[in-house]
Amino acid sequence: MDLSLLPQALVSGVLAAGLYALVSVGLALAIGVIGIVNFAHGEFFMVGAFLAYQLFVSFGFDPLLSLLFVAPALFVIGAIIYLSSIRFVLKAPELNQMLLTFGVGIILQNLALLIWGGDPRTIARVPYRAIGYKIGNISIGLVPLGSFVISLILVAALYWMLARTPLGRGMRAVAQNRIGAGLVGLEVNRIYLIAFAMSALLAGMGGVMIAVIQSPTPTIGFGFTLKAFAIVVLAGLGNIRGITIAAIVVALSESLVATMVPNGDSLRNAVFFAIIFVALVARSRRAY
Fold first, then answer.
1. Which of 9, 101, 271, 277 could form a disulfide bond with 39, CB atoms 3.0-4.6 angstroms apart?
2. What is the pTM of this model?
């Protein structure tokens, strides 16, 4: 174990935590407000990445500019999927809900394969992609740093919306007691629709940023689904406030294992399963 790599591992983990929080807070929103576990969440992330790639290839849009187009596109996609499928299983058993969202994810993944193929797609010729800073032995890329800052701004904006706006207060009311919220005049179905569409929007914006950091493939969503579930489980199902801290813990764990453990890069996904396992066992012991 080379301890000289520890500072770099810590910095890389913290920078990755911003993107992880952005993706996970959308999943937590769907679970907390609607009460549905969305296994297609990572595919919204993947679609956002490929839309950013397509906008760059077809129109030369900078990825930062494409955020303005991908965000409403993913909101509409999320709304269409909710209206065409999700709303029909809200009162169904949880297994039915999970199987439906898993099927939606498979459909989105195969559509991406048909449109873009299975090869990685790279957004090249972006001038700031190769820019980096060096502080001692620590290297900080401009793109990961920018992704971290943008992700935190978006997560903070969601927190503000939930705390300060009528829509946010309505979402919190529905999350706490959907029957009571309906009795006092809130349009519960409308709030469900907006919450699911916003969940897809947040995942898609994360996809735009990953499209610059690495070359996406149609299967990239699965890995980020694992990360998002690990973070949501660690924070507590539906606990949106705890997502940022949980994202830091998960991202640091992944970075430390990948950097400090021999052959650690192959153990990245095992970190998320381990976190889910430990969190669930700890909560079940506390319940007794």
1. 101
2. 0.92
